[in-house]
């Protein structure tokens, strides 16, 4: 099986990057993590990359007059590495439409909410304030509109009595890691495409995100074509 060549963009701790490296090293996933790029020089995720001998690059926003200029530099770097997939793992910057549109169906983001609920920041408190019974994490294709691209996968957790945003984040983190690995596994084993802004797996339309099953894999329920044939 050919390795899935991934480039990771991050701004923070890099626990998701560490999980990707572990999945690669354990042999669970055929991953080639070609480079890690950050907009923060102090992001611990850069150190995690360096320790794993993965090229770690800081692109300083202060050296660029505006977002377009910064993103053009990002684009140049990304092109050098020729990734098959760009993984936004805690990358806390909005990307320009020009950059995003250069990688249709090849850029994914991990977001800590059950999208389409709670795009943007402070997702846990917003779920608490709304009195939601559940929360979770989503992986979606990146499109120019923030956190609005077609959903690929989701993990759902219950909100428990007495929960705070911190407690919810701690409980979600290992599940997010599982969701990311399972989603990368999907990309490595299937043809995953964004066609007409919708998720297609092996050519079949999936209108809903794939749920994370208890075995740590995505439940690849049949797509619309198959369902309509059996009805
Ligand atoms: C994750 O919680 C993810 O949902 C959000 O940013 C966080 C990244 O965590 N987009 P880490 O830097 O991978 O530890």
Q: What's the alpha carbon Rg, rounded to whole Å?
A: 17 Å
The low-confidence parts are 226-231
The number of distinct β-strands equals 11
What is the name of the CATH topology?
Answer: Rossmann fold
Structure description:
This protein has a single domain (4-190), classed as Rossmann fold. It contains 7 helices and 11 strands. It has helices spanning 15-25, 44-51, 67-81, 97-100, 123-129, 165-189, 224-230; strands at residues 4-10, 31-38, 56-58, 85-88, 107-111, 134-141, 151-158, 192-195, 198-201, 204-206, 210-211. An 8-stranded mixed sheet has the order 3-2-1-4-5-6-7-11, sandwiched between helices. The chain has a 3-stranded antiparallel sheet with strand order 8-9-10. Strand 4 (85-88), helix 4 and strand 5 form a beta-alpha-beta unit. Helix 1 (15-25) runs parallel beside helix 6 (165-189) and helix 5 (123-129) crosses helix 6 (165-189). The longest helix has 25 residues, at 165-189. The chain is globular. The model is unreliable at 226-231 (pLDDT under 50). Bound molecules: 5-O-phosphono-beta-D-ribofuranosylamine. Residues 10, 12-16, 45, 89-90, 110-112, 137, 176 line the site of 5-O-phosphono-beta-D-ribofuranosylamine.
């Amino acid at each position: 099986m050919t390795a899935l060549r991934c480039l990771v963009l991050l701004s923070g701790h890099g626990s998701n990057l560490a999980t990707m490296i572990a999945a690669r090293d354990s042999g669970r996933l055929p991953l080639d993590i070609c480079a890690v790029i950050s907009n923060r020089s102090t992001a611990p995720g850069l150190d995690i990359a360096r320790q794993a001998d993965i090229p770690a690059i800081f692109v300083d926003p202060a050296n660029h007059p505006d977002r377009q200029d910064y993103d053009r530099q990002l684009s140049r770097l990304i092109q050098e590495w020729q990734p098959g997939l760009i993984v936004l793992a805690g990358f806390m910057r909005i990307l320009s439409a020009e950059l995003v549109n250069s990688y249709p169906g090849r850029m994914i983001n991990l977001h800590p909410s059950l999208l389409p609920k709670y795009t943007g920041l402070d997702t846990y408190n917003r779920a608490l304030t709304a009195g939601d019974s559940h929360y979770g994490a989503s992986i979606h294709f990146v499109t120019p509109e923030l956190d609005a691209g077609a959903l690929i996968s989701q993990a759902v957790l219950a909100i428990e009595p007495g929960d705070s945003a911190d407690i919810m984040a701690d409980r979600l983190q290992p599940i997010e890691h599982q969701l990311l690995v399972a989603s990368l596994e999907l990309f490595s084993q299937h043809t995953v495409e964004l066609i007409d802004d919708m998720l297609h797996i092996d050519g079949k339309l999936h209108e809903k995100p794939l749920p994370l099953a208890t075995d740590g894999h995505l439940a690849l329920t049949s797509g619309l074509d198959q369902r309509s044939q059996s009805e």
